[in-house]
Amino acid sequence: MTSEETTTEMHAELPEKDSDLVLHYCHATIRFAVRVLAVMMTGVVLFGIGDVVYVIYQRLMTPPLYLLNISDIFETFAAFLAVLVAIEIFVNIRLYLKSSALPVKLVLATALMAVARKAIVLDFGKHDAAEVLSLAAIVLALGFAYGAVHVFHSRYK
């Protein structure tokens, strides 16, 4: 299989060659936009890493020096997890560019990680029970969906 054949098979919904010239340019524009998003997400990851370093430095330099309290640790976790979610989104974009299939399992895992990040850094004292239960329901739904996709893929691969 040549490189051209592989490229035309990828993303049949956005073919590189289309008899309609307008659709051809629309598809090319969307494919270009996805590449731009990948570059931008790389920038977000780099800025996120800078934010993690800044948060740690700022917390360590605040009196008492070199000591972190529990809220400092949670802020550091939040910064770390935000970078990890950004990396997962980048992986989703990269897979979208390289594959003909939507990586449903990875998208669900990314969503689960983002919601888990929210749950980990959530200040339960500032939110009412309905908000906490809503977050729990989202985590359960995403976990169930991820498990169902995993079972489906393992059985029908």
From TrEMBL:
<dbReference type="GO" id="GO:0005886">
    <property type="term" value="C:plasma membrane"/>
</dbReference>
<keyword id="KW-0472">Membrane</keyword>
<dbReference type="Pfam" id="PF06146">
    <property type="entry name" value="PsiE"/>
</dbReference>
<feature type="transmembrane region" description="Helical">
    <location>
        <begin position="132"/>
        <end position="152"/>
    </location>
</feature>
<keyword id="KW-0812">Transmembrane</keyword>
<feature type="transmembrane region" description="Helical">
    <location>
        <begin position="77"/>
        <end position="97"/>
    </location>
</feature>
<feature type="transmembrane region" description="Helical">
    <location>
        <begin position="104"/>
        <end position="120"/>
    </location>
</feature>
<feature type="transmembrane region" description="Helical">
    <location>
        <begin position="32"/>
        <end position="57"/>
    </location>
</feature>
<keyword id="KW-1003">Cell membrane</keyword>
<protein>
    <recommendedName>
        <fullName>Phosphate-starvation-inducible PsiE family protein</fullName>
    </recommendedName>
</protein>
<dbReference type="InterPro" id="IPR020948">
    <property type="entry name" value="P_starv_induced_PsiE-like"/>
</dbReference>
<keyword id="KW-1133">Transmembrane helix</keyword>
